[in-house]
Design brief:
Shape of chain B: globular
CATH topology of one domain in chain A: MetI-like fold
Mean pLDDT of chain B: 85
Largest sheet of chain B: none
Strand content of chain B: under 5%
CATH architecture of chain B: Orthogonal Bundle
Number of strands of chain B: 0
Shape of chain A: flat
Helix content of chain A: 55-70%
Strand content of chain A: under 5%
CATH superfamily of chain B: MetI-like
CATH superfamily of one domain in chain A: MetI-like
Distance between the termini of chain B: 11 Å
Oligomer: heterotrimer
Radius of gyration of chain B: 24 Å
CATH class of one domain in chain A: Mainly Alpha
Number of domains of chain B: 1
Number of helices of chain B: 13
Structural class of chain B: mainly alpha
Chains: A mainly alpha (about 300), B mainly alpha (about 300), C alpha+beta (about 550)
Distance between the termini of chain A: 38 Å
Order of helices and strands of chain B: HHHHHHHHHHHHH
């Protein structure tokens, strides 16, 4: 066994300095900087983000630069396939699908995101409170949720329309939020029930952190993974719910359109002109794909539990 | 435990009462008229309103209804004039429930499996495959999914029957169409939840103690990760079992979904109420079971405080 | 613990499957040798009831006319003897005497004139609360008896003896035989109605039958199965042994089922027209769609006649039909359904009319618009009209095309409001609309069924044609022509007067006519003598057979 000797000259004493003793070798990053750094590193998530941004830009600008109106009908052009003039073909009333898709994207992306985010905030808060305090309050909130869940959502929607006495995106979002938060709340409450027994909560309590802060700052961030999952699931849900609601006269009035409406119109033509359903389905699916992959990336970026596990 | 369950049942009944009362008054607040018809002179409308007791004060109608309900009588439909809600539920619920159970079995089995596989193979092609399935499942709505399945399997390739609900072969396509969304969402939640669990300390402890991977996955990870899925099962079971309008219409399944949706836009008050009562009872029962299950599955949760 | 969970889940699943057990019924499809005797067709919506006096929809009427025998039968528009062997009409046209043939109910009892008397009185009785209670308005005291002002004894229906029924009319109605051929006028058994109460006719064994078929089974939400009635008076004529009426709510599914051999007759949605071009036939189902226009409200600009005419001329009905229905429906430039009876031939053949060019006339539309703007004192862009329609896919398409056509020609704004079907009906009846997409199916084959709706003080004059802003009827030509039509006994003069009224209505832009609905259908090879008609039972299989 040969002995390896490391020569002493390779080492030198650095010495002590008061200033450096407590300094942090890596640059301090705020929560958001850290998250952005991690997103950039995750190529798939970054690409997804870019795709979503592209869609948003197209939604804003494409209809402005299109030579066709989204409501322009034409008997000759109905159900025509994609061509140099009409990049994505024309629909059953001879309207240019490219223009319609981006007009629709404005509505669908706004509603999908707004409804999902608002649902999430309300649901997480109520669910968190319910789960954290437990006992009678929890029982009351959960039964209230049972009642709300039991009322057919269509009835609530119609009543919202009557109460607000106008249609449009705001009405639509309100109608969706009134019943939409329930699922998130149930989920959050279930998780908080589990988490609140854990030591870090006890520690926070001992240190005198107010309850509300415990819920918002300590419990809910631990659920970020579920929230992102439920949000990415909620966006397509909102897009199609919007299509359904537009049909009962709540929401987008023709000739304005949305992706859900375009898909619904397209499915009737599936046997004759399949591109009318394939095109909106493609955009909905790619958007969802992007949101899901981005969601995965965001989860990794924001989840306190996954910090430093790389 | 028995005391807890008893208490839970009493509260459930109270919830149901609130639900019925709320729906009773809400449907009457809606702007429509159950008897609106192309040809409806005022005399005929007055006759119909008197016949169904709609000319009485609302509070009288409410107590009459609750009295009948206590006797188990949910009243006659206003559209299907000689059918009672009891008849309609009794003859259509079995179909919806049958379809729902098949769809649920399909969704739960494959959903959980896919979720677990995706989490264990995180970032690998298998994971992305699972994501793709989940995305298709959630972003393709049932009316498109149902049409596509029906068109390709039934019409083009003639592998399975096009519609009607008679033999087990007829049940495959509608069950998949109904279950696909649930499958996708279950698999997503399961994956998220598994990933949470994997990074927990007790898993590391278990690993360091030399427990086999299979045992860790089965005994520690899945059991801990299944909670959020159980949470979403309550409403999911209730909504799937009581029928899905679009798929039932598409596959000619004589289920309850049609009545549930149709009765609202036709203002058929008795059916709306009857089905809400039935659905609400179902929901409350499912949620009660889920609450009790919580205690069984997760030792950390003490419900009976 | 996991085992216990599994066990619990399993028990739950098992209990539920117990509830669900027995669901998958064996298909009743024994492939019999010899000629086929089964006929299966689909309805988009469930048959709401088989109680004749409670029926208020085409599917109900169709089924009832196959299980019960009306006094007279209408087959392809021709009146034939039914339960009545013969009948006499008095000189003044007000008294109808029907002589019943010997025939029995499916429980062996004889069908009597009292059964018919009871049925008609039941229809009118306010306590029955029939949707079609108004359909007895032709009978003496029909309307006051229905509202409860007069007792039922005052109704002009009387069974003289077991085999003779006498009906007295309120006013002369040449079409009264068509009226009694409707489902709500068939005989009904008093003893059974009293026995079963509201459950009457709810199940196969809760009624008895005297028509070509009897009900074998009613499966809620699924299908109604009929069987040949061997005791029917004309049983030799019935060739089919079994008929299944299946509820298929999705029109595309129905077509797929037909192609898979699960249906023998199916209606084809207009989108699929080109796919099945070689197998498709078509018939007009009597639906006539038009826009009602609000005319008696100073806040709604369509009170201006020129604006109404401008809209009428701006619409390119031919293009509208192509875009919305793939040329399945027919553009309609007039008000009355042309298929209804005239004096000798159909009204449409005797009195052709193209009130507004089917391809539209933008020039004329703009002329009228200019006049309207001058009268209203505003710019085209200031005018905003709401178009009310139903929430179906088809209605949306139609509204979108109308919106584009009117806006692009006239430069006024049209907004679309979609509401559920019943809401639309209610808003219409409440006069709460500006323009509404609506329609009217004829009750009998005569132009009067359409034209009576627009008489100044008629209940159905929802738009307020010929009314001032206070809701009073002004003196007008239309009502004068209708008065002549109601009083004259000369058939030619009556028909001429009705035509004049129709022309007057269209010159005033009283409505905006649009289209006549045509139904595309496919039927299996070898299925013969299936009668399709725009009145009564839209599909009549009493004489159908397999070749």
């Amino acid at each position: 066994m040969s002995e390896q000797v490391i020569s002493k000259e390779k080492f030198a004493v650095v010495g002590k300095s008061k200033e450096n003793m407590e300094s942090i070798s890596r640059p301090t990053l705020t929560f958001w900087q850290e998250a952005w750094r991690r997103i950039k590193k995750n190529r798939i998530a970054f690409f997804s983000l870019m795709l979503i941004l592209l869609y948003v830009l197209l939604a804003i600008f494409a209809p402005m630069f299109s030579q066709y109106g989204h409501a322009e009908i034409s008997a000759e052009l109905r159900n025509t396939l994609p061509s140099a003039q009409h990049w994505l073909g024309c629909d059953h009333l001879g309207r240019d699908i490219w223009t319609r898709i981006w007009m629709g994207a404005r509505v669908s992306l706004t509603i999908g995101l707004a409804a999902a985010v608002i649902n999430l905030c309300i649901g997480a808060l109520i669910g968190g409170i319910s789960g954290y305090y437990g006992g009678k309050l929890d029982m009351f909130i959960m039964r209230l949720i049972d009642v709300l869940y039991g009322i057919p959502s269509l009835i609530i929607t119609i009543l919202v329309m009557v109460a607000l006495n106008k249609t449009g995106m705001i009405t639509l979002i309100i109608a969706m939020v009134i019943v939409g938060w329930i699922g998130v709340a149930r989920m959050a409450r279930g998780q908080v029930l589990q988490l609140k027994e854990q030591d870090f909560v006890a520690a926070a309590k001992v240190m005198g952190v107010p309850d509300f802060q415990i819920i918002v700052k300590h419990l809910l961030p631990n659920l970020i993974g579920y929230f992102i999952t439920s949000m990415t699931m909620a966006i397509p849900g909102a897009i199609f719910q919007e299509a359904f609601l537009s049909y009962i006269g709540l929401g987008i009035t023709p000739p304005d359109c949305s992706w859900g409406v375009i898909a619904k119109e397209g499915i009737a033509m599936m046997r004759v002109a399949p591109h009318e359903v394939i095109v909106p389905a493609f955009f909905i699916c790619t958007t969802m794909l992007a949101f899901n992959l981005l969601g995965d990336g965001l989860r990794d970026a924001f989840d306190p539990k996954l910090r430093g596990t790389e | 435990m028995a005391k807890y369950i008893l208490k839970r049942i009493v509260i459930s009944l109270a919830t149901l009462l609130v639900l019925i009362t709320a729906v009773f008054f809400l449907v009457r607040l809606m702007p429509g008229d159950p008897f609106a018809s192309e040809k409806m002179p005022p005399d005929v409308k007055a006759n119909l309103e008197a016949y169904y007791g709609l000319d009485k004060p609302m509070i009288v109608q409410y107590f009459t209804y609750m009295g009948q309900l206590l006797k188990g009588n949910m009243g006659y439909s206003m559209v299907y004039s000689n059918k009672t809600v009891n008849d309609i539920v009794a003859s259509t619920f079995p179909y919806s429930a049958d379809l729902g159970i098949r769809a649920l079995c399909f969704a739960v089995f494959f959903g959980i499996t896919l979720g677990i596989v995706a989490a264990l193979r995180r970032g690998k092609p298998l994971d992305y495959g699972c994501i793709l399935i989940a995305i298709v499942g959630t972003s393709v709505p049932d009316f498109i999914m149902g049409s596509l399945l029906q068109y390709f399997f039934g019409v083009q390739w003639k592998i399975l029957p096009v519609a009607q609900y008679t033999t087990w072969k007829h049940t495959i396509l509608p069950a998949i169409a109904v279950g696909f969304y649930s499958l996708a969402s279950i698999s997503r939640y399961m994956r998220t939840s598994m990933l949470e669990v994997i990074s927990q300390d007790y898993i590391k402890t278990a690993k360091s103690k030399g427990i086999s991977n299979f045992r860790i996955t089965w005994k520690h990870q899945i059991r801990n990760a299944i909670m959020p899925v159980v949470t979403m099962m309550g409403p999911l079971v209730a909504s799937v079992l009581t029928g899905t309008f679009v798929i039932e219409a598409m596959y000619v399944v004589p289920g309850m979904g049609k009545y549930y949706v149709e009765s609202i836009s036709t203002y058929d008050y008795t059916i709306v109420l009857g089905i809400t009562v039935f659905y609400g009872a179902f929901l409350v029962i499912c949620n009660t079971i889920v609450d009790i299950l919580y205690g069984f599955i997760d030792p950390r949760i003490k419900i009976a405080k | 613990m996991l085992k216990r969970l599994l066990a619990l889940a399993l028990t739950a699943a098992l209990t539920l499957s117990m509830v669900a057990c027995g669901t998958p019924a064996a298909p009743a499809e024994p492939e019999a040798e010899g000629p086929k005797t089964t006929f299966r067709y689909s309805e988009l919506s469930e048959i709401p009831t088989l109680d004749p006096q409670m029926a208020n929809s085409v599917p109900s009427n169709t089924a009832i006319l196959h299980i019960q025998e009306p006094l007279v039968r209408m087959y392809n528009g021709v009146i034939e003897p039914g339960a009545a062997e013969s009948w006499e009409i008095s000189e003044d046209g007000l008294t109808y005497t029907f002589h019943l043939r010997d025939m029995t109910w499916s429980d062996g009892k004889a069908v009597t004139a009292q059964d018919f008397e009871y049925a008609i009185k039941r229809l009118v009785d306010p306590n029955t609360a029939s949707y079609y209670g108004w359909f007895a308005c032709y009978i003496k005291n029909g309307t006051p008896c229905n509202s409860g002002e007069l007792p039922l004894e005052e109704l002009g229906v009387k069974a003289i003896d077991e085999k003779t029924l006498e009906i007295t009319l309120e006013y002369v109605a040449d079409y009264f035989l068509q009226v009694v051929s409707n489902a709500c006028y068939v005989a009904t058994r008093q003893d059974l109605v009293e026995q079963y109460g509201q459950d009457f006719a709810a199940a196969a064994d809760k009624n008895v039958y005297n028509g070509p078929f009897v009900v074998k089974e009613i499966k809620t939400g699924d299908r109604v199965i009929l069987e040949k009635n061997p005791n029917y008076w004309n049983a030799d004529q019935t060739k089919l042994e079994t008929v299944e009426i299946i509820v298929v709510a999705n029109a595309n599914t129905a077509v797929d089922m037909y192609n898979a051999g699960d249906l023998d007759y199916v209606q084809v949605p207009s989108e699929l027209k080109d796919l099945y071009a070689d197998q498709i036939s078509e018939f007009f189902d009597g639906s006539n769609d038009f826009l009602r226009v609000k005319q008696d409200d100073p806040n709604v600009p369509t009170h201006n006649k020129d604006l109404r005419l401008a809209i009428n001329y701006a619409i390119n009905r031919a293009e509208f039909i192509t875009l919305t229905s793939n040329d399945v429906y027919a553009a309609n430039p007039r008000y009355v359904l042309p298929q209804v009876a005239g004096v000798e031939k159909t009204y449409g053949e005797e009195y052709p009319l193209e009130a507004y060019p089917v391809n539209g006339d933008p020039e004329k539309a703009k002329e009228h618009l200019d006049l309207a703007l001058a009268a209203l004192g505003c710019e085209a862009a200031d005018i905003n009209i709401e178009l009310l329609t139903t929430d179906s896919e088809g209605s949306k398409k139609q509204a979108e095309v109308l919106q584009q056509q009117i806006q692009s020609v006239l430069g006024i704004n049209i907004t679309i409001k979609q509401v559920p079907y019943k809401d639309r009906l209610k808003m219409e009846a409440d006069h709460d609309f500006e323009l509404v997409f609506t329609g009217w199916a004829p009750d009998y084959s005569d132009p009067y069924t359409y034209l009576e709706l627009q008489i100044g003080n008629a209940f159905y004059n929802y738009g307020g044609y010929n009314k001032d802003f206070n809701g009073n009827v002004v003196e007008n030509e239309y009502d004068k022509w209708m008065e002549i039509a109601q009083t004259t006994t000369d058939k030619q003069e009556r028909m001429d007067a009705l035509f004049e009224a129709e022309k007057q209505l269209l010159e005033d832009g009283g409505i905006v006519p649009l289209l006549l609905r045509r139904v595309l259908y496919m039927k299996a090879d070898g299925l013969q003598d299936l009668a399709l008609y725009f009145l009564g039972a839209r599909i009549d299989f009493t004489r159908a057979y397999w070749a």
